[in-house]
Amino acid sequence: MLELQTVLIGALLLLTLVVGVYVALDRGPDRFLLGVIGVLEVALLALAVTGIVQVVGDAEIVSPAAFVLYLLAALVVLPLGVMWSWADRSRGSTAVLAVAAFTTAFLVLRSIQLHG
Q1: How far apart are CA 53 and CA 101, in angstroms?
Q2: Where would you find the membrane-spanning parts of this chain (predicted)?
Q3: What sign for the dihedral angle of Cα 48, 50, 51, 52?
Q4: Contact at 8 Å (CB) between 19 and 33?
Q5: How far is CA 71 from the centre of its chain?
Q6: Which of helix, strand or coil describes residue 100?
Q7: I need a labelling partner for 98 at 20 to 30 A (CA). Which of 9, 17, 19, 63 fits?
Q8: pTM (2 decimals)?
């Protein structure tokens, strides 16, 4: 069975590609894109909660502080990208959303590496 982290990384990379198409077509983020981001954010919240519970429950994690910080950073990056892309409705601000999605995928990947 696929783990939540693996599904999240795949979905975030797919989101990066979709937003790249939006940039190529010179489109700003629409309600569909924001809905997908909202669903991903809920999954990221579930990942953060389960990760923090594992740290508190004495799971063997290489660096617990770094692990928790990566999870919390993954929660913050996408909403910041959305706020930026809504504040500035240019093509470049939509590209910021692609960077935010890719960065979030990296943060989730790094948390997997720390989890061991």
Answers
A1: 25
A2: 6-25, 32-55, 67-87, 94-112
A3: positive
A4: yes
A5: 9
A6: helix
A7: 63
A8: 0.91
